Amino acid sequence: MMLAVHQRLAELYTLSQKRPLAPAEQDELQHCLHVNTVYCWEMARLHIEALLAEGTQDTGWQQEISAQLLEVRVSGKPGKRP
Questions:
Q1: Which of 17, 36, 41, 75 is buried most deeply by CB count within 10 Å?
Q2: Domains: count for the chain
Q3: In 1-82, at which residue ranges do the beta strands (DSSP E only) sit?
Q4: Residue 38 falls inside a structural domain
Q5: What is the residue range of 32's domain?
Q6: Residue 50 exposed, middle or buried by CB count within 10 Å (0-12, 13-18, 19+)
Q7: Relative orientation angle of helices 4-18 and 23-55, to the nearest 10 degrees
């Protein structure tokens, strides 16, 4: 699933390959990169926790993590920590 920020990031990158970005576009690019970084780190954290939950056979924790992963994939916002 692609978030709107990822689509805009791709658009800005494509534009930057054709011409210099305007200052407002450069600001938007930096914002998109920040949001993408937060998204990537949050997904990495949740995947590591999912492996830990699987390793400890904690099905309740696995369910919580699955719900958080879905939330992040859909909204792009960090999952709620218990």
A1: 36
A2: 1
A3: none
A4: yes
A5: 4-75
A6: middle
A7: 140
